[in-house]
Every structure is written in structure tokens, then in C-alpha cells.
Design brief:
alpha/beta; 6-stranded parallel β-sheet; 19 helices
Amino acid sequence: MIVCGDDALAERLAAELTGVYRERVTLVVPAGHRAGRTGPARPATMLGRIQAVVNRTAAPAADGASDAPRVIEAPELTEAVLTEAGLREAAALALVHDDDETNIRTALAARRLNPRLRLVIRLYNRKLGQHLEELLDQAAVLAVPGLDPEALDSSTTVLSDADTAAPALAATAVAGTSKVIQADGLLLRAVERTPPGPHGATADPGLCTLALLSSTTNDPAGAEGSDASGREGPLLLPDDATVAASTGHGTVVLEAVTHSATAPPPRRLTARGAPLGSLFSRRLRWSLAGLMACVLALAVATWLTSEQKHPLHAGYLTLLDLFAINDPAIGEPTARQVLQLLAGLAGLLLLPVLLAAVLEALGTFRTAAALRRPPRGLSGHVVLLGLGKIGTRVLTRLNELDIPVVCVEEDPEARGIPLARRLRVPTVIGDVTQEGVLEAAKIHRAHALLALTSIDTTNLEAALYARSVKPDLTVALRLDDDEFATAVHRTLRAVHPHALSRSRSVSTLAAPAFAGAMMGRQILGAIPVERRMLVFAALNVAGHPHLEGRTITESFRAGAWRVIALDTTEPDDRLPDLAANPPHDGTDRPAGLIWDLHPGYVLRPQDRVVLAATRQGLAQLLGRQPQPRARTSDR
């Protein structure tokens, strides 16, 4: 396996492949690379950081040893560098540079050098990624005459770290609500359940239990470290007997599965309210309504006091008087003269109201392309700091879940500003470290704070200040340094034990999906359970002895994997990629995913299943568990 990158995701991915899947890995980094840290770095220092991650994430090897990746430093990714890394003999190549152009250029060169290579490319642009997948797969088929396209085994996979991490980051903004895993057309929801109450009321078990939380309290965050029973961290994928015996523990259950087509459409000019309310202010609408009522009353009075038999004719005379284009009522009854004077007065009052309506409508259309300011009465919202790559995807998720958001961004030209403007999301432009910026975002009435800027210290400073304003505020921070994130998480929980605190690393959330794609399997997403990870993957049953020919109950491995859904469509009619959007060609495609599985169903070779698995469990299922093997001569 070859990993090419220039940030923490590359190191985390190399550690994932080495520690979990026990693969031989070559890591290609720019010269002087230090994963975002200042100062030059040597391969030995980088290996130390990777080894530390391996020690935290990997199961012990059979011989107690762990192979370290081979590190190559190169100023530029050329064909010579790729050849030196062993590209012609490699099984997979991951291109995870932060620059999309670098990844695309290298992918084209790698496909030419090794047509059978499995490519995993980090790309933010979704549409470009879909076209690139098709192009590179077609190039692989044409380069090897007679090659069966089905034998490519997901030859090219384009992923975005932002898309992979955004659902988990968005879920942390709402304590006690669903954790969402979305891979384009497929949406998975995992919900935290608190322990049963003192009267023995049991919570809804959902479709299945995904994890037992380590905390014995009602704190949804869960405590890091051991609980009262001595268990370290959460217990992933427990069996039913363990769940029944673990009283007083919160659980994470699979509650519902649906498709993204059910998500609410993007909001238009305003999040709520009629179109009239978006054009005119409430005061102006009341003024117009009052004047219309006066005109109607004058028309009724004219009809009752005049000789006009038809009410429409009386209304017509009232409008003529209103606009001062009727003849004076000289010589007519006093009642008629009084009504004409009142109608003229109403007409004078109507002129400034109509002018105000025109000006307000013009102002509304003029500011439709501008950023909204937070409304005065806003409360219970989520304050989102940073509208970069990660913040933009998180904003999209929160909008789909219909959660009110106020964004804070320092750069008015940031990537997510056009999206916030289109969705009419209130946005504050300013440096979050400056006084008054968070106050403008109504932080004192907010429900949660999501600090997702690219600077760890800025996120921490914003979180600490927000907690000083509102101690019970739910806080989720993006911290790229894992050790720093753990220390911050524990400190915040110790100082504010009754408030929810989360620290998230984008590389930690995204690495399992990238690693699974390099193994040639479709990873649908991952959810964090405390500081561990649960991976959802689509897998063909054929060729896997732990699944093929076994019942649903027999295929379950406690603490490792569980079959949660079954794709029963015929192989010819089935979508090649469950993570892709279903085609909208007007044809009816059978819904093949079954989530309520009978425990006695026997898995057939032609079936495809959706699995919930731990990282080590997925590695074991794919036959990648560590085996004693000699080190190669160049390592």
C-alpha cells in the first residue's frame, strides 16, 4: 500500500493500514513535511508519531511487534518517485494531498504506470470526482485488453474527508439526537439511549444495539477511561445477553434507515414564513390591512346610504373618491359628502403606505444576495465557526436536518459564504477571537457551539470564551492533534461535568473510510462512539467464509461485526455502489435493502450485505488480520 499526502490524514491513514490491517505501507510526503507543525521533520520523527497512533488503535500482533511504514521524502510527486515507492507492484495507492490538482495529476500518471492499481483519491469536488472515477476505470479497462471490469474491485474510489467527517461533526451539535451517516443516497441514523429510569422503564431498543457506552450516568458524552465495571471505553457491537446484563449503561442503537431523498428541500428566501412576510415588514402589513378595512367600510356605508342598488357600483364610487378622480358631491346628501371626504382622507393615507411597500420590496430583493443577520429573538440554535471545507459540509448537514444555525466566518470570501447566502443562514463576518463577535451570534442563547476552523488554538479560545458566557453550552471542537484533543476533552469535562464536550479530529473520522476503500470494499461511513470508531460497509457475501452459508445469527461476531441489512436485488439490477445516488431515469428500481432481517436467513453467495463493524473486525473479516511475517529488506 502506498499513501501520498501532506497533512495529518496521510499519517493517520498509514497508521490505520499498518496497525489495523497489518499491511506493508510506503508513505510518500513532501520534503520537510511535519503534518502542519512548524519546523522540519525527519522520517524518524514521523515514524514515531505514526507508531504512537498504531499503538492506540491496533490490536496486538501475534508476535507482539508492529511493522512501521517506509517513509520517502520528495519535493514533488514524479513518476520516478512513484516507481521508487513500488507503484508497479503495489496493490493500492491513496492520494490524500489537500490540493485536488496534485491528486488528479498523480492519479493519471499512476493509472498509466499500473492499470491494475486500486486508486483512492481525496477530492472535494463531488461532480468532478464522479467523472474522474469513470475516466480512470475506463483507462484501466482499455490498458489491459480482455480485463473483466467486474475484476477491478472498485478500482477507483473518490472520497472527501469533509463528506466523511461532516455527519459526525453535525451530530455532536445536538446532544441526544441522531448520529447520521450519509453516503449520498443512503442515510443511516444511530441514536444514543440513556439508561433505564428508576422505575425500570426500558428505552426503545431500535433495530439493533451498536454499542454500550462506558459511562454509567446519563451523560450522553460518556466518560473516557474505565467505568464502574472496570471496562475501558465503550463496548462496540455487544450481544443481546451482554446488553441485558449491562444495567445502568447508555446504549447506541440503530434507530432508522432512510434515503436522502426524504430530506427537506433547501430553504428559499427565508427559513419560515409566507412569501408576503419575506417582502414586507409586519408593521407595513398591518397598515395595509387597516387601510383596506377602512375602504371596505366606506364602500358598505356608501351602499347603505345611497340609492345604489348594487354593492359593486358602491365600491366603484368609493374607489373613485379614494383616488380623487370623482366629481365633488355638491348638492348631494350630507352623508354622501362626508363619505367622500373620508374616502379622500384614506387616499392621502394610502399614498405613503404604498411608497413604503415599494421601497421595502426593492430593499428585500436588493439584500436577497446579502448575508442575513441573526434575528433578535433567535434562541436554541447552533453557532458554527468556520466556513471552510469542513464547515461548509457541516452547514449542509445541519440545514438538511432543519436545525437553526448562525455562522461565524472571518473571511468574507470563504468557501461556504455563497452557500450560507443561498440558504439564507444568518452569518456574522468577523474574527471570533475579537470581543463582540460571539455575542453578535447570540451565543448566550445558543444550544451548541461547533468550532471547526483550521486553527486548533482559535477553536479552543472560542470554546473557552463561550463556556464562560454560558457554562452549560454544548461544545464540539475540531482539533487535529489527537493528544491535544484528548487532553482538552478531559479538562473540559472535569471543569464542566454537566455540559457536553466533544473533541473531534477530521483525520481520525476520515481515515477508516479511506483505509477501507484501499482494501477494495465500499465504506458507507463511520460514527464515533466516545473516542472509538464504528464503520459501516457494503460487502459481497461470496468468498467470505464467516458469512457465506451462515444464518444471520451465526454470522454475528460480538465486538467485531454485525450484518444489519441485506441487498436482495439481482446482481444485474443492483447498484454497483450503494454510496451513489440512484439513477433518476424514470424507471422503477426495486428497493433491495432489507433492514428487519430474520435471524434464520441463510446468506447466499450472490447476496450483498451492509455491515456494522469495528476497524479490527473489518480487517479480520477481510482476511487481513496480522500474521507473523518477516520484514522486507528495505525496511
